[in-house]
Amino acid sequence: MKKIYSLFLLVLAFNSCGEKNSASIEALVSKGTLKELIAKKKELSAKIDAKSNDLKKIDAAIAEKDTLQKLPLITTITTKEEVFKHYLEIQGNVTTKQNILIYPEIPGILKAVFVKEGQQVLKGELLATIDDGGLSNQLAQLEVTTELSKTTYERQKRLWEQKIGSEIQFLQTKANYESQKNALEQLKSQLSKASIRAPFSGVIDDVIKEPGTVIAPGQGSEVFRIMNLNNMHVEAEVPERYLTTITKGKEVSIEFPVLEKKISSSVRQVGNYIKPNNRSFNIEVPVANENGNIKPNLTAKLLINDYTDPKAILIPQSIISENSKGEEFIYIIKNKNSKQEAIAQKLIIKTGKTQGDMIEVIENLAVGSEIIKEGARSVNNGQKVKVIEK
């Protein structure tokens, strides 16, 4: 509106002068020399510049005295340094290395089962027995013959030490005893396989076979599933571009959406193999499972700290605009007076990583700058604005 008013005053000035001098100018244009035309042009240009300066002074005075003018209302935020942690978000699955099926080591009939599903067991605890098919009787007989061969060997050894008897007799009794002893140990080892024991401490997740079932080593003869829920971890695949930033010991926040639970941990192991099909590598993150709610194959969301800046400047992403060159810019304010009036100034910036609604500014923005927040998209460069508190 002020520009139209200024233009109107300029036109009136020219009209008042133009009506008086129009005849002389027309005569000069038709009959004047080049030197006279140039001189007249300079004269008129000087008058225009003088009038333009006068109009600027008038506009400034109007702006100063016009208490009814409406300035754009804005809110601002002041930049400051703060710790910025960027997190890579990936999905993983809970697993445990102690989650196995227990198979029989010898064929036979499942004689007895001593545990139930969900029961806690200790390493080495007896879970079930298999009919040994008479091996225990053979063991008893072999123990008797082994003890006899031992007695014979010891007697022959004493005689040999007293130079009584032949060397052949001594060696024969020795060989017989050692053969019996080895056979006894082998039979004991074979018989021990008739007892199915827990390979580690954990919980019996499934009792698969019932007593009386004929079983044998191999696929299809699983007797139990046992797992240790105290030694759980999350496995996840990470894109290869994060190979240098996702390292052992990195801070991790684990979220279990189904359980509505979050826990903190760190990267325990980083894989050394890049999978060619999806260009990723594996990581392991240990999980504390104090109440036992976390189960194998449970879906987990990992937030891994892959970047930290202790002196970052963060601003809301919503206030950033982009020009035709693809440059990002924001508006800051300058020359704020006691009436909270200031001038909006466009500032080209360079941004870095984002986290949620905030983004890191890595170039051109100084600490302590006042950035236009609300109203950032409705102001222009150099426009006068009014700052309000909110």
Structure in words:
By secondary structure, the protein is an alpha+beta fold. The chain folds into four domains: 2-65; 73-85 and 310-387, conserved putative lor/sdh protein from methanococcus maripaludis s2 fold; 88-97 and 228-308, Efflux pump adaptor protein, beta barrel domain (Elongation Factor Tu (Ef-tu), domain 3, Beta Barrel); 100-226, OB fold (Dihydrolipoamide Acetyltransferase, E2P) (Beta Barrel), CATH 2.40.50. It is built from four helices and 23 strands. The strands form four sheets. Strands 1, 3, 12, 13, 14, 15, 16, 17, 18, 19, 20, 21 and 23 form a 13-stranded mixed beta sheet that branches. The chain has a four-stranded antiparallel beta sheet with strand order 4-11-9-6, with no helix packed on it. The longest helix has 32 residues, at 34-65. The two termini are 30 Å apart.
Write the layout of secondary structure elements.
Blueprint: H1 2-31, H2 34-65, E1 73-74, E2 76-78, E3 81-96, E4 99-102, E5 108-113, E6 120-121, E7 126-130, H3 135-161, H4 167-192, E8 195-197, E9 202-207, E10 214-215, E11 224-227, E12 232-239, E13 251-256, E14 261-266, E15 269-270, E16 280-287, E17 299-316, E18 321-322, E19 328-334, E20 341-355, E21 358-363, E22 370-372, E23 384-387
Parallel strand pairs: 1-23
Antiparallel strand pairs: 2-22, 3-12, 3-17, 4-11, 5-7, 5-10, 6-9, 7-8, 9-11, 12-16, 13-14, 13-17, 15-16, 17-21, 18-19, 19-20, 20-21, 20-23
Helix pairs in contact: 1-2, 3-4
CATH superfamily of the largest domain: RNA polymerase II/Efflux pump adaptor protein, barrel-sandwich hybrid domain
DSSP strand tally: 23
Q: List unreliable stretches of 5+ residues.
A: 1-14
The secondary-structure class comes to: alpha+beta
CATH level 1 class label of the largest domain: Mainly Beta
Order of helices and strands: HHEEEEEEEHHEEEEEEEEEEEEEEEE
How many separate domains make up the residues? Answer: 4
SS strand fraction: 35-45%
**Helix proportion range:** 25-40%
Q: Tell me about the biggest sheet?
A: 13 strands, mixed
Q: What's the Cα radius of gyration?
A: 46 Å
